[in-house]
Amino acid sequence: MLKGRLGLETARVPHADRHGLIWLERGELCVIDGCLHFMAGKDSLTPYILQVPHQAVSMILLGPGSSVTHDALRLLARHGTLMAAVGQDGVRTYTAPPLLPDRSDVARRQAELWGNPRRRISIARHMYALRLGEVLPHRDLDTLRGIEGARVKAIYRLMAEKYGIPWEGRHYDRGDPGAADMPNQGINHAATAVQGAAAIAVQALAAIPQLGFIHEDSGQAFVLDIADLFRETVTLPIAFTAAKKSINGDETTIDRLVRREASTVFRKQDVIASMIDKIKLVLRTEENDGTGSHSDA
Predict the structure, then answer these.
(1) Is position 15 annotated in a ligand binding site?
(2) Where are the coiled-coil regions (predicted)?
(3) Which of 19, 22, 194, 212 could cysteine-pair with 222, CB 3.0–4.6 Å?
(4) Does 215 count as an annotated binding residue?
């Protein structure tokens, strides 16, 4: 009788035993006979229905052209499966309903480290070490930011030379973002895409977005911390590849060029999975096996 209606016929599966993320687009996420399904291509010649193993994944990424029923949200909430609405090619994230993750260990660990000034600066130093390739001796956050700023300026210049792009420095007018030159516009769009990926990673682990170790004021401070770890390896290559195509005569808008390149890079480099691993490393949730340990000294 009403099989699956109350969601009580099977036990919940812990997130540690699930298989990560699943991406769906252009269809309806709904419930059929008590099970989650995705009805796709209804306006095409080849419509199909996909049964979604909602208890076997941690998060569903719902792309453009999609809708979700109330009953589907109920089922996701019952089994603790997260859902985020994402943009074209999965390179933006717009919202992620708080569907109650089944563990609080990551959030508690993050709050514990953030709430202790000595340990907080230790985590910040560790994050700078991951980005700069060396552990800086300084313990003042403003000093660390200044050193990182100088290094980033050099990285911008070197990357521009590598891609054969004219570079006149980092410039960004929030009131008129379109006034920036093509490389700077590429960096702006690429940074947005990478921040979206970082937001998905943070949400998937149920970490606390507001508690950043380097960034402070933003409501997405920890998301920005994680995105910055991938600036040199992901953000800038995406930005400069797209900018070079635009400068060489590709008439596609720089925003679309960046999204296409980001989609390719995210898939090839498993960027979101790498971000999840970095979060675990930074917060030392894997310190028992020695993969994420570092000294507070």
Answers:
(1) no
(2) none
(3) 212
(4) yes
